Write the structure tokens for this entry.
Amino acid sequence: ILARLEDQMTLSDTLQKTYDDLPLFVLQAWAPRDSIEPLNSYASKGSLVLEIEEALPKETPPTLLRNRPTLASGQDLVSFYMTPNYWYSDPSVIVLFSFVLFFGMIVGDVGYGLLLGLVVLMSWKRMDQSIVGRRFRILFVALFGITVIWGALVGSYFGVAPEPGTLMSGFKLLDLNDYGNMMQISIIIGAAHVILANIVEIRRHGFVFASLSPAGWIAMVVGGIVLGYGGGPAGYWLLGAGAAGVLFFTGVGGTPGQRLIKGLLGLTRVTNCFGDVLSYLRLFALGLATSSLAVTFNDLAMQVLSAMPGIGLLFAMFILLIGHGLNFALALVSGFVHGLRLNFIEFFNWSAPEEGIPFRAFAKKETATWNP
């Protein structure tokens, strides 16, 4: 019934884009570029007239996101939040790789990564039954891989650190308990993500004066990082040049007074930029929380085992099973929620994709039911 109602609504909407005055019937519609040749072939066979026009800048065509099968899950992640405007570049690939990295940093445990891999393996055939399922299967494999890799880099195996001199300890390059270093890594990743968003803006504008505003933000972010590492004059020069770019080129196209006002308003986003970069500290904080909970459950199980010889083994196993199961679930939720949040809020805040209209092919969704 729902499919039938949706078909009726779609048909009603489509009829508004037609002109019918026998013997003339005209239909206007948007079509993907790669469908032009099949449409021409169909029109020639049916003695139809087909007129093809490019979309005009003042128009708002529907957006059809298309990526290679291995990267197509990125467009599903983007569409979960919004459909980008037709005139903006497709952020799917950037969102995909960023999300995978953030997820791995938040979950960050080899044991939990292997558990995720086991879940993917158990669901392998089920996810093979649909196109979307196959897309997300590739995504989950990537999440499994990055979680294992990051977990090995920070030396966390179900919350247990490898003994020095062992093979697993050789992979450990980072220490989660080194708060200063881990916070610096998170801030640098955040700065790089914001810079990448502004590079997307530069590409959208093209190499014109308007692109000097996002270039200015890039200079200010880099300048702030340089100053943070004691770069001295170079940092101040970058901050000054960046501020000038934002001040004079945010409002390109208006009168000098309007441009100055828009530039001053643009500079007020300095606090937003600072806050957005600091927001990536959640990568370290959530990763530390996952590791700390795992260690806590391990310690609690060992205490019970020591205090209750014999029967304590059963209770210790119960604590480990429930504790790590709960922590694994919380880590997955945090990885998905905050991994996507940093893309949808911080990244989109600087790459500024306006919302568009998703392309939906005109087709009947209701299917006939066979009744024997």
Summary: The chain has a mean pLDDT of 89. Residues 73-348 form one domain. Residues 95 and 343 are 6 Å apart (CA to CA). Strands lie at 18-21, 24-27.
